[in-house]
Design brief:
Elements lengths: L10 E3 L6 E3 L2 E5 L3 H4 L2 H10 L7 E5 L4 E5 L11 E9 L5 E9 L9
Antiparallel strand pairs: 1-2, 2-3, 3-4, 4-5, 5-6, 6-7
Length: 112
């Protein structure tokens, strides 16, 4: 049986061996972003938002977008929230900032 979100996206380990994949999105801690996101995309995005403090990243390969999340309670909460974020579109170099209270992920889903 596969775990799914309320919208029906399957939750699974990414093909990279780190992070979680839900639909087209791969979610990883910043320590592992270079294992998932192509180097040229990542370096450009980091330059565009160099003063933003983040600790988690969401990568969408089909849209070529990277979302950097502040996720302040990532290391301490059972269900951390994404918090403030910056999304960078690689194709257009457009930057979108925002805040969300959505749960970044359920840590209990990572246990086997």
């Amino acid at each position: 049986m596969k775990l799914k979100t309320l919208k029906g996206s399957i939750i699974q380990r990414s093909k990279y061996g780190v992070g979680k994949q839900m639909g087209q999105h791969i979610y990883v801690h910043k320590l592992y972003m270079d294992q998932v996101i192509p180097q040229e995309f990542l370096l450009d995005a980091l330059e565009l938002c160099d003063i933003f403090e983040f600790n988690t990243v969401m990568w969408n390969n089909s849209k070529q977008t990277i979302r950097f999340d502040s996720a302040k309670d990532f290391d301490t909460a059972r269900e951390p929230k994404a918090g403030e974020y910056i999304t960078v579109n690689y194709k257009s170099h457009a930057i979108r900032e925002g805040v969300t209270n959505y749960i970044w992920h359920h840590k209990w889903l990572g246990r086997r």
